[in-house]
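[step 3/7] fold_predict: job queued, chain A
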Amino acid sequence: MEALYQTMRTLLSHTDTRFVRYLHERINWDSRLIAILGARGVGKTTLLLQHILLSGQQDCLYVTADDFYFSNHRLFELAQQFSRMGGKHLYIDEVHKYANWSVEIKNIYDLVPDLQVVYTGSSILDMERGGADLSRRKSEYYLHGLSFREYINMAKGLQLEPMVLDDVVQGKVQVPLDIKPLQLFADYMHEGYYPFFREPDYRMHLQGVLKQVVESDIPQFAEMNVSSAAKLKTLLYVLAQSVPFKPNYSTLERDLSISRNTLPAYMAYLEKAQLVNVLRTPAEGIKRLQKMEKIYLNNPNMAYALSEAEPNKGSLRETVFFSWLRVDYPVTSSTVSDFQVGGITFEVGGKNKGRKQLSGAERGFVVKDDIEYAAPGIIPLWMFGFLY
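[step 4/7] structure written:
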């Protein structure tokens, strides 16, 4: 076990706490079992290590589920031994890489009552399948990619606070005078959604992350053969060239040689793995799951990583708006415009966008790119990046 402690100490010594993701303040860290889920690359490992440092915990242990230690030790065995030594907090990273992880986590929760367990997983698909056994025990949280506010804070060393939607639509978002939001927003759209944006070869890194999900995570979960995995990859590529994509299964079936019965499952895999976001019509219950209005990529950075040509600006605007709003608000399609959030209708466009589509809306706003300040009924697109 000493080797595990040494690994943790090494990682903690290289962890910076000057910038902490939005989710840290939302988590109830007193819960006995906490699950932190999210797509690959959004910063779950860093969040765990930062919490250990910020909480000042001495009776804790951080491990990765694919550590060589577990080649001949069980997770439950480690938890028992750690608890007997006075340990109180066990942090398990990438837990889905451990076989039968959910069974052992359940046993730890039930049989080692003095131990808190916090775990993360990058493969949303595996986490959902295994997490069913823990649904009544765990507090579950999702970590999304960087908001525009977080990107500014991380890039400029600031502490700008998040805003609620009512304040954003009133144009109350403010930044320091020396901050140029439009310039930073352009950078964010290209390379700012993932916390590794400061690393060289960002686009290649992102392409590697996406390749891992579509070639390994999803096929392993769905038990796909090589041919099916290749079709899934092609489907994501086709969507990237044509988003926002209005589902047309007949066209996809013909162009990709994927059966009509298989296509809905492929779409569901891509959505659960947080590669695409699905905009649905305003409906209730099971009907809402059946009515896909449009399909978007999960974030604008993916468009630059996957598209052969320069992505369409209109598509990018809708993609980033949807990716921000959906974190905390139920977003649906609108019968008169682009998006509806509660009783508010939003039309997203460039600086010359008019209000024509909003004429039938009870309460509507034009969301404009390429403008810095708000006006009555008009909100700059970048301001919605302060919602989390």
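[step 5/7] annotate
The two ends are 38 Å apart (CA to CA).
Residues 2-143 form a domain with the Rossmann fold fold (CATH 3.40.50.300).
exit 0
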